Write the structure tokens for this entry.
Amino acid sequence: MFRFIAYRLAQFPLILAVIYLLTFILAWVVPGSPFERNDRKLSVQALQRQQEEMHAEHWYTFLGHYPARVVLHGDFGPSLSYDGWTVNDILHDALPVSISLGLLALIIAICCGVGIGAMAAVDKGKALDWLSLSIALIGISLPSFVVASLLLTVFAFYLHVFPVGRWEHISDVVLPAVALSLMPMAYIARLTRVAMIDVLSNDYVRTARAKGLSRRSVLWKHCLGNALLPVLSYLGPAAAATLTGSFVVEKVFNVPGLGQHFVNSVLNRDQTMILGTVMVYSVFLMSLNLLVDVGYALVDPRIDLGARQET
Amino acid sequence: MAQGLCPTHMRRFLLIPAVLLVLLVLSLRLSTGGGGRAAQFTFINRGEVNTLDTNRMSWLQDIRIAYALWEGLYTLQSDHGTAAGLKTVPGAAERIDLSDDKTTYTFHLRPQARWSNGDPVVAGDFIFAWKRMLQEPADYTYLLFYLHGAKQYSEAFEAWASARQQQLAMPAPDFKQVGVTACDALTLRVQLDYPVTFFPDLCAFPPFFPLHEPSMRPFAEAEDSGHTNYKSAFMRPPNLVSNGPFRLAEWQFHRKMRLVANQYYWDRGQVKSQVIDQLSSEDPQTSFLAYETGGADWLAEVTGDTAFGLAQRGRKDLHVFGAFGTYFYTFNCNAMLPDGSPNPFADVRVRQAFAMALDKRFIVNQITRMGERTTTQYVPPGVLAGYQSPAGLAFDPKAARRLLAEAGYPDGAGFPHFSLLFNNEGQHAKIAEYAIKQWADNLQLGDRGTLAGVEINTFRQYLHNKNYTMARANWFGDYYDVSTFTDKYRSYSDNNDSDWKNPEYDHLCESAEREGDADKRLAMLSRAEAILLKECPILPVYNHVNAYLFRANVHGVSLNPRNMALLKEVWRE
């Protein structure tokens, strides 16, 4: 198991280096400049000066300066569009916000999704199943900006239950978290339902019931665990996406998280910021995928990560 | 055969939500910054502030904050009842002596003027800022070229820095050649090459603000070339030292900026609010909801459909007023287009035809709907006292068809395909669609016109590199003088997106620059604008408006065309 983890961790630097290079190439060739985002045109001297200051005159000056600092100091450099802030400052500010939002959204998604999916599987074909399917369908089909705007208008504006556009108290987290949780909740509910139906049809379940175990005990102790394996594999990428923030939800609720920076950095052509956010996302994704794989082995004794394939 | 997971393994699943819950609590502690003391006035600015380096500023929201944090030799003050809405008054200088030939200004600084750390404001602070402006060129460096020797110094410094980079020996340029000297700590003498009637306005503009060198010094990084960069941390609290009505107490990126009254400001008695919060909000809908639920006292930008909807409902808290800016279409005036094909718009008659074949009323009545006025002129009328904009080309489709025929395209025959470039944001697409249809109908061009909508930064790059045939554009004045508009179309101006060159226009602008008599000067500029409107490198469409939202309990928010409400004057009951 530890060899497996070590082997996967050893791959990280190479994968990250490739991602960095590919992202840099894309960010560099796209038309537009981070220094000329205004209606005024900068004079040649002024543009050159700003480019020199930011080591962004040519692709080789950029690559000659920034990657070394990333590797040696973990410093992504200054933001090219927001004077006064380094990429690390912005990440330091925005990451805990996105993580809190994502964590609450995940908790809601997991608890409600598993609950709805399990109940639907148990009451297959009946009203509860139909209700859960509807919720799942709505969660997957409705675009997040529609859900977010609806929640904001109804709960914050009309009902005044939650505040608008602030990030200072716990209550500010609830609405965006609910909006963010709907899509993963829908997927988790569907996955759980399908897996549960499959598990419930197994012989050992009938055996357990025949032995006299209560329905609740059978469901909770013997079925749910197996049904959650597909959910676990979905959780890896879902967590990575949710924890790093959703641009739409963050924009609508004015959450100062990382999701906005993903998109704004591209719109602003802020190459250092683009690289910073992409690296963060990549590290998250790879770590969470590794966690999921390790998690499989921990919860399912049938899986042996260290085993070699018999040829 | 496997029966499935045993209960202990099942319990491990519960670890997941449990761990997530713990992490949630931890991250919430880290991320939610406590509100602290409530502000006396809260507003939502146009967007997040891009920079607090006065030398580099060009965005409106940054300049708005700059007027709160700094004060120049002159400063702005609300002037209710005038079209301009603002007047220029002495700021950090209490007395200004002007020589008889109006080229030498002697500023006597206020002895009681202080930086936010208690240091006195001295002449050297202005010299440091202006010198830096010339050494590190930025958007508005060209405004300092009115100073004697400034342009030469800037170019010499650039040459010297290049030489140093190539390890060539060259004597360093001497700043003493520039016409600004500190006679003593409280006296600054400025020498211009010729009288500049609007020099006080320039002094009230952020690029001319002073900088506090001692607080910036720890962040200085000298390059081998001789340039000095300042690490951006100098503009963040608690490092930023400023001399205006407020100091920067807090800056949470993309959340909030807190301005607290500067206890050392010489005019602190006139500062109406002691604590002002600027909230950062990019989504127009969310900004509006935040204002509606009482989260903000003043919403400094209300756009498009929201504004129209509110106006329809007769909202008393919506304030719409004329802006110091014009929306227009710009033509590429080069003989050849970027793709090598001949440019039909190189012919002035074609440009005039297009200008006269566009009925702009539909645009302001049905698309923008904010009470904008259509215009045939470039400089917004009625703002600049004493200036008379000449008449432009009125809507006249018959004359337009005649002109097009004279240019060699009778009834539109043979006119090549052309595209209209715009950015997809806002209402530009709708306006462009309508314009293309107008030209198709009135000039019988059929489907020769196409729409080219791109993302905004791509749009800007195409526009600035003259990689377009016709494009949408706009321009807002930076200071209350005609030259802020007319300078843009000088042949050698970096901002001349049309590449239109007219020696007579240049000559008139240059003569006006040197002219000391205000009336004669404005007459010259009016003649220059007349040439511009006749030659038509641009097609003026309408004058912009500004829209604010604030309730009756808010006072001091000035509704001036420059969109510059002064935070020193705002307060809420």
About this structure: The first helix of chain B runs from residue 7 to 31.
